[in-house]
Write a structure and sequence with these properties.
Blueprint: H1 2-24, E1 47-55, E2 62-72, H2 83-88, H3 106-112, H4 115-118, H5 122-134, H6 139-148, H7 150-159
Antiparallel strand pairs: 1-2
């Protein structure tokens, strides 16, 4: 009986903390995060946080700023990525900006598509799902082809080969090209 009441204390404390945080208007603001928690975090408004490096002209000193991007996370808010997911997905807390370039790296894709990342780290998978879609690639298909035909998968991303077709235009009249008048 005593064990169950002791075990309930952490849950009660967490519930109180969440209530206090929401009543004060708390939550994650990217601008308040430090270098070690910024990359792959999601603010309380659902915006993805990005780490930026700022170099001052008069000194060689580098500073890092955390800012909210215009990229929204799908169904995620108030999220700082766990150390387990950072390690399982092969990402770094010092990643600058948001880019799809890592989708071209074999080692990164191997970790991203692994069950320890893909099945357990929804924030990371959501981010790279969106980045792959922006390149015209379906991440689950990319992970499927990753193991079997890596070169083809990478070529598809580099050429953005599976971009959706644009709208069809019927009866489009095109004026013939004319040479510019020379006076």
């Amino acid at each position: 009986m005593a064990f169950s009441s002791i075990a309930a204390v952490p849950f009660f404390a967490l519930a109180v903390l969440l209530c206090v945080q929401t009543s004060i208007g708390g939550g994650i603001e990217c601008e308040n995060l430090n270098k070690d928690s910024c990359a792959f975090a999601v603010s309380s408004s659902g915006k993805r946080c990005v780490l930026e490096r700022v170099v001052r002209r008069k000194s060689v000193e580098e500073n890092y700023l955390c800012r909210a991007s215009e990229i929204e996370a799908d169904h995620l808010k108030d999220w700082v990525e766990t150390d387990n997911c950072i390690q399982a997905c092969g990402i770094s807390r010092t990643t600058l900006g948001i880019s799809s370039d890592s989708l071209l790296e074999f080692d990164f894709m191997h970790k991203l598509c692994s069950p320890s990342c893909y099945d357990n780290c929804p924030n990371i998978v959501d981010l790279y799902f969106s980045l792959a879609a922006g390149e015209g690639v379906f991440l689950p298909k990319l992970c499927e082809t990753h193991g079997s035909n890596q070169r083809r998968a990478m070529a598809e991303i580099q050429s953005s080969g599976s971009v959706a077709q644009g709208p069809e235009i019927e009866n489009l009249e095109v004026a013939p090209a004319t040479a510019p008048a020379i006076f």
